[in-house]
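Input.
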Amino acid sequence: MRVLNLFVIALLLAVGAFEMGRARAARSGSDRRRTPVVDAVQHAAPAVVSIHAEQRRSRNLLIRSAGSGVIVHPAGYVITNSHVIRGGTGVVVELWGDGGRYRAQVVANLPHNDLALLRIKRPRPFPYVSIAPTRGVMLGEAAIAVGNPRGLGDTITVGVVSALGRDAKLAGGASLNNLIQTDASINPGNSGGGLLNLDGELIGVIVSLMPSTDGIAFAIPGDQVRSLLHRALGGSPAAKRLPQAAKDVQPRVSSSIRDAPPAAAGLPPPSVGRASPPRTVPMRPEDFGMTVRDTGGFIQITRITIGGPAQRAGLRVGDIVSGVDGRPIKSELDVVLAFSATRPGRVYTVDVRRSGVEQSAGLRTP
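Output.
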């Protein structure tokens, strides 16, 4: 009996050790599978959307073309290709995560650049991606394409940055310059989608694939996207007012598609509903313990929270913010873009003008 009891105890210990070992192996396997690509996709994919341009040919015939887009501002500004919405009498944007569908206003349409800027609305902010400077894009670095190929919905492919500075002519006649070439798998419907780096930043907007070839596709670089966003929203005090839809494209879609009222004025809230934990988090000046005001010509600090990061950095009420990390600050949009990809512990160099004297402060992310 004693020998039997010892055998049973040894057997239970062996089974327990095996189960613990299997659990540890499963956990370590999950850790191994969580690659930088997984992190980047979880971070940025909620901001990549499907776009449907509707053309009503008759009372009973509604044609819908499918493409992709990327939300580049938490107030609901979406970048896509001009050819994605060409001829549309109504444009509908469908989100990746919650499946929400929103009618879109056309804020800007530049066929010669094959870029268009749309606007969707709801009371809370949208997930969005920050735009990486094109000068930082590296040959051979990983390139993640996210879009809506052939109307299948959210699809991810991975390749590398194959070349920079390519020129191409589209079937519609537009000649595009300084494109990013990638070998990530691209199909019709990917147009307007995002080409991301491993930080989940937008390095380009997918525009076309070269016919009769494999592994050659192009994306419009992020600098051109940023330029369009600045021209459309950040050029004057009127940027704080929401742009109206273009006269030649009046969205007409079913009432089941959401059309929420505009978000409250001022800078957007920090929460954008990304996967947890995010690699980067967009923030507002308020998150750094300061409030700013757009005077129409410059940004001025109007309030400093005692003990907050701004006070610890030495910033003061009345300081005029002239730059963040070398980026000129002239409007609220500039502030949003400056803090659009914040990592915990990151230190920003904030340039201010105080009593006519230029000074710099190190503002640490809380």
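Residues 2-33 form the longest helix (32 residues).
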